[in-house]
Structures are given as C-alpha cells and as structure tokens.
C-alpha cells in the first residue's frame, strides 16, 4: 500500500493507495474519529460494498450507521443535504463523530459538505470508489452542492482526515465510469507531467484492462500532482490551484447547459480540454501537432471531442457564472505545451465563440 501525504499544516492527511477494504477499520482506528461513524453512500455502491465497509469499521469498535442517497449528480443539492442533516441528528452525531463518504465524486462533494456544516464541522473521511474520485475528487478538500443556476455554487474547503483507496473496487465499475477517470488522468498529463501523458499514449489499453500495477502507477502519480498543487494553493488564492480546472470551464458550461444529464462530468471535461486546447492553438500557444495528440488520446479513451444538440446561448450563460471570472472577464486555463498550462483572462471572446462552435455547439 502506497501512502501520499497532503501537507497542509494542522489539516494535513494521508492518502492510502491500494489498501484492502477489510483493513479500513485498522487504519481508521489510528485516528481520533469519535465513537460514531455515518457512512454516506449512493444506493448502488452501498449495495456493493456498504456492508464490507461497515463490518471493517465495526471490527475497530466504531458505532456505524449507513445513509443511502439516490444515485446521480442531480441529487447533489441543498435539499438532499438537509435530509442528511436530519439523519445526522437522528443518529445523535456530535462534534467528535465522523462522516465517511463511500462513493464517487458526487457522494464525496455532498457528504463532505454535510460534514463541513453539521454541528459547525465534524470529522470527514473518504473511501472513493470510482477512478475519477480516486485520481481527483477525493484530494484537496473541495466540497459542495449544485444550484439550478450552476455547479458547485454552494460549498467550502474542508479537508478529510484521511483518504483510503481499494483499487480492486474499480474492477466492479461499468466501462463508462473508467472513461470518466481517464479524462482527469489525461488532464494531469497536460497540466503538469509530459511523462505521464506519454505513458498514457503508450499504455492506455493496458490501463483500460484495469491492471492493478498500471492503475497504481497512474493513480499515485495523479495524487502526487494534485497534492503538490493543493499544498501550494489550498484555497485557490494564488492561482496555482486553478490549473486543476483545465477543461472544466467549458466542461462545466456544457454540463449546465444540458441539465447535468446528457453529458457526464468526464465527457464534459474531455470536450472542455479540447475546447481550451483549440483556444490556445488559435492564440499561438499550443501547436497543431500537440492538439492532434490530445484529440487522439481522448478518442482512444472513448471520450468525446465534440458535443451534439447543445445550445450556444445556454453555454454562454453558464460560462459567465464560472467561479474563475475576474472583473467580468472569462478566465481560462490554457495549455502552452504538454505538461505546462497557464491562467489567463485575456482571451478574445470571438475566439471563445469560435472554439465552442468547433466543438459542435449550436445556435
């Protein structure tokens, strides 16, 4: 089992990669988590491994209960959070108790938000069960819920006590969930590590077979990259952490414009990365050959490079709700080359419109 430490002073925590769910209680027992643990999970994940997690924690003398929430981004809402607050109160959780998120990014965001706000903040731990959550969502402490007007508009920064990853859980995922994670892994190669990008180009098919050795390498590298970025800029005050949003500006707009239903997060981010790369290319930064390499890798990962039936006006409205806006200027993370990106609010709007049209967005 590999351990990557996220160093944030008193909020530091370890990320355990490649552990066995059966040993979760052993690890949890090393932390001061109180007596009561509430597992928050989606119904499908709870059915798959909820009992294993509960048994592991109970073996370490925790009093454990399980709250199931409906599956899907559309349930990452304030109303769902309110139901979970009631669950916490019914189970008599106090400030020393712990909420454990068991699931993907949606569950992590929702459970973490509840943990950060119930009783003014209780312990939070995370057992991510999807590739997307393991390489990205579980690291860094961003938690929150969506509003009809946009994604993650209500939230906070709230670091977990620890993150625990059993890679064998990934073998239970449908192929679409693996594609979700691959989008974020490709993102890490573009923003920070050309060697990782080259590794993906050379070994993508082996990774897609869910070889544990291949998964362990790419997941560990992604966690290391994200940990380093978060350590430098935990709350997105210095601009460094915003590089993690590569592909997310247009990606979130596509999700919002389609009601968070037609395109999954990973699919939207894939399209968003292509859009950002096209903008960079038009501005003279990202050579055409590099754009082609990115498009080819995205397609090999069975992810889209274009969208269909997406309204330009709705995308434009969603872009202007983006949290990275500076003084009413759209702010983009753009690639300079593979392994290096930069943040800018100097993108001509005409280029943005041109790029999103090339992605298939319609009037």
- Looking at CATH, the homologous superfamily of the largest domain is Dehydroquinate synthase-like - alpha domain
Radius of gyration, in Å, reads: 20 Å
How many DSSP-defined strands? 11
Quaternary structure classification? single chain
- Proportion of helical residues: 40-55%
Q: Kindly state the mean pLDDT as a whole number?
A: 95
Give me the secondary-structure category: alpha/beta
Largest sheet: 4 strands, parallel
Low-confidence stretches: none
Number of domains: 2
Overall geometric form: globular
The name CATH uses for the topology of the largest domain is Dehydroquinate synthase-like, alpha domain
Q: Which CATH architecture of the largest domain would you pick? A: Up-down Bundle
**Element order: H for helix, E for strand:** EEHEHEHEHEHEEEHHHHHHHEEH
> According to CATH, what is the class of the largest domain?
Mainly Alpha
Q: Output the strand order for the largest sheet.
A: 4-3-5-6
> What proportion strand?
15-25%
**Span between termini:** 51 Å
Count up the helices: 13
Binding site for Zn(2+): 184, 248, 265
Pfam family, one: DHQ_synthase
Protein name: 3-dehydroquinate synthase
InterPro entries: Dehydroquinate_synthase (IPR050071), DHQ_synth_AroB (IPR016037), DHQ_synth_fam (IPR030963), DHQS/DOIS_N (IPR030960), DHQS_C (IPR056179)
């Amino acid at each position: 089992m590999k351990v990557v430490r996220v160093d944030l002073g008193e909020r530091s925590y370890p990320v355990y990669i490649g552990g066995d769910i059966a040993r979760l209680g052993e690890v949890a027992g090393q932390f001061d988590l109180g007596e009561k643990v509430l597992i928050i999970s989606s119904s499908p994940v709870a059915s798959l491994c909820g009992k294993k997690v509960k048994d592991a924690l109970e073996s370490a003398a925790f009093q454990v209960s399980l709250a199931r929430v409906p599956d899907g981004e559309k349930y990452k809402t304030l109303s769902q959070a309110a139901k979970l607050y009631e669950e916490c109160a019914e189970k008599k959780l106090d400030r020393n108790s712990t909420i454990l998120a068991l699931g993907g990014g949606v569950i992590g965001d929702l459970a973490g938000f509840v943990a950060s706000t119930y009783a003014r903040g209780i312990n939070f731990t995370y057992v991510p069960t999807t590739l997307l959550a393991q390489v990205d969502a579980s690291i860094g402490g961003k938690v929150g819920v969506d509003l009809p007007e946009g994604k993650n508009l209500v939230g906070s920064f709230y670091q977990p006590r620890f993150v625990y990853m059993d890679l064998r859980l990934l073998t239970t995922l449908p192929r679409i969930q693996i594609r979700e994670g691959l989008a974020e892994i490709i993102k890490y190669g573009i923003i920070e590590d050309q060697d990782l990008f080259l590794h993906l180009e050379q070994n993508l098919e082996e990774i897609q077979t869910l070889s544990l050795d291949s998964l362990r390498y790419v997941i560990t590298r992604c966690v290391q990259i994200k940990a380093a970025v978060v350590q430098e800029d935990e709350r997105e005050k210095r601009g460094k952490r915003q590089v993690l949003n590569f592909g997310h500006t247009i990606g979130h707009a596509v999700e919002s414009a389609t009601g968070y239903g037609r395109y999954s997060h990973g699919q939207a981010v894939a399209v968003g990365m292509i859009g950002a790369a096209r903008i960079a290319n038009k501005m003279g930064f990202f050579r055409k050959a590099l754009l082609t390499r990115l498009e080819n890798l995205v397609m090999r990962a069975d992810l889209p490079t274009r969208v269909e039936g997406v309204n330009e006006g709705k995308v434009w409205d969603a872009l202007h709700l983006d949290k990275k806006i500076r003084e009413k200027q759209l702010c983009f993370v753009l690639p300079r080359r593979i392994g290096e990106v930069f943040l800018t609010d100097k993108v001509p709007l005409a280029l943005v419109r041109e790029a999103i049209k090339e992605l298939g967005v319609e009037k």
